[in-house]
Amino acid sequence: MDQLTPTDLKTILHSKRANIYYLQHCRVLMNGGRVEYVTDAGKRSLYWNIPIANTTTVLLGTGTSITQAAMREMAKAGVLVGFCGGGGTPLLAANELDVEVAWFTPQSEYRPTEYLQAWVRFWFDDSLRLHAARRFQQARVGRLREQWMHRHLREYGFIVDSSRLDDLLERAKRQIDLAQDTTALLTEEARLTKALFKLAVDAVGYGEFTRAKRGGGSDPANRFLDHGNYLAYGLGATATWVLGLPHGLAVLHGKTRRGGLVFDVADLIKDATILPQAFLSAMRGDDEQQFRRNCIESLTRSGSLDFMIDTLKAVALDAAAQDVR
What we know:
Largest sheet: 4 strands, mixed
Radius of gyration: 20 Å
Shape: globular
Structural class: alpha/beta
Number of helices: 11
Strand order of the largest sheet: 1-5-7-8
Strand content: 5-15%
Distance between the termini: 57 Å
Order of helices and strands: EEEEEEHEEHHHHHHHHHH
């Protein structure tokens, strides 16, 4: 039987891959032709396989190391690797202090160029970039309605007042259409998210809640929001890499965040999927691992990476089509 190489295994589309890993206190290495992570159990070492052909993102947290051989194989399979702090947040090694995670993207020069060409066609035009930013926000609002009213959330106890949600989203749509610049869009984005926090608190009976900027201290919902958002950033970085779009060509967050396109794309699903799960897990008393497992299950079940990639494609081609000269 012929042995498969990591390059052969890339036939599994990134949007169909099922696994996201957060690892801590372990070593990632090659063992018998497989990429594995090793944990210590007393005097024994336990080896666990990482199915790289079916993995989009690996986050390496506190106390991790990775060998050059393992990194090479994951790059061949198109796995995005990131270094981050404990629990997925907030800091990383060898980078500036205003950055939460460092991404190491696989260096393949054979990604499609169609969407990059469409992106740069409109990106240098302020009005077209604003048009693209509006499209992102409209897609975000549509995704929110679809996910927050899904039966899975209702079954788990996240029961939202549909009339309040519809009123919020209708107002957001109007403000997005009226926005004359990215500052107005960012302001509306923040207003809607704040209102969604209130709606989520009421849906699960959480009580008092204030969103903390970095880390939530003793508040579990804040910690889970930070943790889950970095899973969304991993998917956002994967989606942009798959389509060959540089992270610096943002349409909304470019003036405030380096690599802002990742944040633009992650926002498509953060409030829709991560936010409700954070409050559900906080109310249930889940630990970080349980929360992460629930998030990954929700992201996979809802086809979040597919949605990100499809939205990027649509925005790229639509905004470029507006460029009539």
